[in-house]
Amino acid sequence: MYRLKPLFVSLATATALSIVPVSLGTLPMPLGVTTADAAASVSINIFFQPLASHGVWVKHSKYRYVFCPKVDAKWRPYSHGHWIYLKNYGWYFASDEPFAWAVYHYGRWFHDRRAGWCWVPGNAWAGAWVAWRKSNDYIGWAPLPPAREGFSVNVDFDTTEPPKDEWVFVQPKRFLEPQLNVAIVFGDQQPDVFQKTQFVGPVVVQNNIVVNNVIDLNFIQQQTGQQVKEVEPKPVNDPAQATADANGTAVAVFAPQIEPPKQDEKPDQAVDEAQAPAQNGNGGGDQSSSASSEQPSSAEASSSAASGEASSSAASSEAASSEAASSAASSSEAAPASASSEQAPASSSAEQPASSSEAAPAPASSSKEAAPASSSEQAAPASSSETAAPASSSEEAAPASSEEQAAPSSAECPEGYEIVDGKCVPIKASGDETKTNGDQSSAAQ
Question: Against a cut of 0.70, is the pTM above it?
Fold first, then answer.
């Protein structure tokens, strides 16, 4: 039994729509497979080993195991190849890429912000698992995302429109180009193209078979001026036998019946999600929305590098300033300080050198000894009065008067005379001696 869910698309395609089963059920009979052959269906592990050499298998927290191809940053699913119209199945994406036989016809795609585009294995075959946009000037398509957690089982798909950044567009006249990558316009690079087109829906399911005919065959023929061949799918048993080009009225297609995956089925080797960017080398692609990687982009890296250089330059500047300040401090310490400030020059009186011991101190053996003392006795030279005069009393310092310099000594007075007040006077008798001595004391005072 199915739980039914309608698809909402344009009126032009409403008559072609069926309903999408969202619960498990019988798979559609693959191309060219009879009821007897269906009993010999293959396991989903048919994808694991062949794809491993073209990318990396990643153990995913939501989808169990996913395949991330090794591609360049501008790569998108359903962009390197061309469209072929299969009879009864609609548009089939044919590609020479070595993983095309699997990833364009089974499973679903999602864009991981770290690992880039990754594919979730599935067991239902389709010509292409895509949604479509359309206008008179452009036709666009985008890969359908997974509808549930784990592997993509049955024909379930998410009917929500994929985000703008995941679409690619071509002009209708170039829709049949043999290499669409030369004609494609990316939705995230030219958002006006996205705005000028309308969403016309995803693939449809008819009789439990996926049919990709939302883009009308007659519209393409009118726009391209070419007659589109409806080719028959020719089933093959080996992916290597599938071809990208129709040969006459048929095209070789690898579309085996695949059993629903078992819980323990997984690739032989798989990396963790954090290791995927380094393993597949695309680093999340170049998309601006869902591609916001944890690793920085080239512009951010450049900005980061520039910031690093600026920081380095600032650090150098700071270091240079620090060295200059240190040098200035050293100079300040080396220079003699005045009594008022360590850095201010000494006054004119202080410029007179002090005694030889003060003017030329012995060299210090350490930085502490090299720095001058902060006291005025060590830092400032002696004042002029201390420099010019010996450390004696003011009477000894003052020069003798001219009169005192001319007075005779006692040896110069004649006999019977003595010096009194600097003059030779007669020696008095003993009675007068007391008087004379008293007068001398008064004079001395």
Answer: no
